């Protein structure tokens, strides 16, 4: 009893005291930075998007102020003393005191909440959801002119933002790094590898003030720029050369990677860059490149395993596209709302499925062939296609020319045979193709015939004389047509037959009879796809025969293919539903395409499809698109984003260290630089902030160990790609070859062992084994091991941030992987052939190449000692000499072998693993 | 440099390192509310699902990601050996004795078992297939084991059977992912990755999570079954190989002697020490220690991976064949690895997919050979662990990814050339032994033909929850934040199987 009284007195005293103290504090409580974190940490699990205990939720203001189950609101703005929320925080009965069954809130936290309610319980908008506005650049202040801040340090507005915070914390920026360090840093950052010799030398020789700016421009103009930034984008696009899942078979999608390289190199404005990737196929008269851009969302996995439900994996791919769009392009954890309303951010459960409806009408259906595919013709065939479309435009109509162009480029729209069901004596073979035996039947449901008078289909048959009959609406329904199926010698065949013109939507029932089949288990025919439409138009017009012939030769022409997006025509429209608790089998309400209400409105004139999504995303009102990309570019350059959680700019993400700077850069990116990524990078790397030294002086360490204030340049370990590319460059064997199918550099045996898949790693010879990392063949289930060890990701799903680790397996890789040992040999030869005659001079030269700066005496001594030890042992052992040179017989001298050991060591020093 | 100088240098370096380690750790903890730590502090911030606050405080220290850590509460198991028979062995020929099924042998499958069901390969009406093995009761416990496991029958009193395991995945890859990552989709961390993330590992000279495969193929789901998913990649399983380098890139290049490698690592670290003087970045010290560890691992890993030095009685006991690549060798390696402080050892043996499509996949032929190849060595493992006092702290788990049908498979409606069984999700058997699990115990029952589970039904999530429990974790509180939500191995599911805890 006594205790209770004492307790209450203490509480009361505290409340009065803090009330007084808070009153004295003139600054109002900020919802976003002060209140929301308390709510997210302590309350939202039970009172948010997932659960609303007691009918109370703190997710939206209207919910928080609304009536709870008790019939009364828990928050009365302006009146904390009568607000149940505040009362419950301070009770002593554990049954009533909140947070329920957890420690009470700290006095400070309660005070903040109390003051917040007192001030009216205003809701703040989370920083990342507010549209971008012009941001004032902080100006250096002088206190009555008595002293000045070091504004001479400032090169561009970035530095003003950085300097302000440093000054507030009594810190100084570091001096500019030396020229060599800057050269290596900015080269690795802009082109992902050391600068080509010519660029490097002209910078080092240039002592003018503009030398650095010229270097930056030269690097941005280098074709290697696109390769480096593509490496980054491939993780977001979850690019791989295989389809994923069990068999993880190959997929030809490398043209998308090449598209990215070109897009970065031509500095395609970021708004076009993402528009083409999301909806290039929906642009007017899409080019091949526009189609290839859409492979962005065809990097989803395809399941080839027998017995799998294609619709399940189609749905899974569509959901992955939604998640990737939000995670990769908007830094948002929208994926959360597939099961329930977002616990922390303003997204509701339905929002997910409304947004998914934009993506739910692409033609892909988890087919084995990865349809739809862009078909790219040879030059001759391309000009044939051109003359065909011209003929159609002149003799039929421009619409017809457009439709035939699109059909010949994609074979779409067609109906995949895996849509068949009700198999009797027939089956969906391997879950890929409808196959029928003698007297078999199956159904193709809800086919829109629309007056179709021709059926085109792709099939294969091992036996002659099959008879395929199609009945309308039931097995005994009216006979639509009977088709004689000729045997197909090899592969697949496309055939077209006339059918009686039929209107309406029908279930089609297929039967197959073939009296020549003896074995009842023989599959007579396999279908791949069907297309109901009209015969080739323009019969009777001059040149018809030639055009007709061209059409068929193009249908069957040899092509290279890339999986792309293709939208369902209206008559193939799929309805979209809410999935209850994210389960695709439990369908709730039908939903129409829309964007969450809490962000910018869908543009009035935009179509309700992927193109509309792209327009919405790249609208200046969209608060997330620019911030996400700017934050990502910052992370690539500084190792950490201004907001560390690239994957979550929402209220659970780590708040930016410099929110105004992020906003300023993002506003600039959209409005002043017109989405020019090169300009964004130029602005950042030109800043004094970027050019700082990375050495840690003890002050900085004491006060800002995590370097959150940017009082120095943050040292960062190189990415897997940079480590490989750098070593190739230093060794002098980097192939400058760009583009083309992915390559197979050295990889130990036995890495690829997928069941049901005899694919083998066929190591390249010649320059292809020394290509940049971005061209390495990427198999999802067994990715290139040395890159995985350096935190490369398997790319099954979108990954926006790699977590950098430091492990002994990494050391083993660069020490012992034959690919790296091979580089060391070439590096040693390069040192020997440099004109330097003594081991000392050779090591000096090699170190200079590797780091751009001369080696210090102690390090030289260590490496020289290693050289001598190695030389001694190799002089006595011809066998080992030969071995370490890997059979390079011309060079098997003990000296070369010893230098190879040194080269191997140089390629492993910390300085080369790190960006200083 | 003289020996003494070297020694002094090392002492100075070690001291520096300790100081820096403490510094980084302190800074790290100081910042953890904001920085990387927040990732790991899991449900401290609440979560998407209904886990409540105050959970595991697993701190991820990128500089020392595998340092041993204590679990939130006292653990029964220090390490885990997971024996996965990839392809899914038949419970009906091993542990789940169904005399009634024998009576139905050769009859058409009753329609009630087929209606509304999907099978991977069975089409139309298949025939029932009686048990293709004789069963007997063994040990004090009187548990049933078939004649295919004559050795294992002798240690049945150490085992705890789960006979009512079910899954919802009937294809190998997703089902294997379900068992090891708690999700049928790719991209989630595996059990071993979660374990090393949560506990680190005892022996810094060896990987903390080792994977060994046999049977000529990797498991169907590929490396994702031992992947790190969204956890830092350092926690993925390290595949050790019985041919070629035991660990990828562990072997020095041809022509590089050990002495020379030592000299080269010393030189690298001396250069790095100069770098450290200039930059003062503790990450450099960490790199120095990683190179030292790499050197030690180069000795430790081939040593532990070499079974030649084991005494003859051990070889006899396990039936090992030094120089070959086989399951028995891997089982012996598993014991050696655990003994050396490796946290999680996962074995995959490929070839248990007894469809009856050829002799090697016939339930009355190839299957028996597979049983022979695992029976003796697994028994030896249990006895060997026991005699070394390790069974008490090592959890051994045996199982597949699903079960097999009581029906004989008729692929696409045709009679298969050999006797076989199709994939079956509604009942299969997993057993566990050691580390605080009941001995000589059987939990869960199937119906009289072994088609459905009728009591003690458990899902892979429940098995995972139980394994985590033995390792000292509450599966609901052991979380990692990714894409804005707290993920756990058991997703939103998982019930501890209390009845099997000793």
TrEMBL record, chain A:
CDD domains: CBM6_xylanase-like
InterPro entries: Cyt_c-like_dom_sf, Cyt_c_Planctomycete-type, DUF1549, DUF1553, Galactose-bd-like_sf
Record-level Gene Ontology MF annotations: electron transfer activity; heme binding
Recorded superkingdom: Bacteria
Gene3D superfamilies: Galactose-binding domain-like
Cytochrome C Planctomycete-type domain residues: 43-99
DUF1553 domain ranges (all copies): 609-865
DUF1549 domain sequence ranges: 157-363
SUPFAM superfamilies cross-referenced by the UniProt entry: Cytochrome c, Galactose-binding domain-like
Designated name of the protein: DUF1549 domain-containing protein
Species of provenance: Limnovirga soli
From TrEMBL, chain B:
Organism: Limnovirga soli
Superkingdom, taxonomy of origin: Bacteria
PROSITE patterns according to UniProt: TAT
SUPFAM superfamilies the record matches: Alkaline phosphatase-like
InterPro entries: Alkaline_phosphatase_core_sf, DUF1501, TAT_signal, TAT_signal_bac_arc
Protein name, UniProt field: DUF1501 domain-containing protein
Lineage: Bacteria, Pseudomonadati, Bacteroidota, Chitinophagia, Chitinophagales
A Pfam cross-reference name: DUF1501
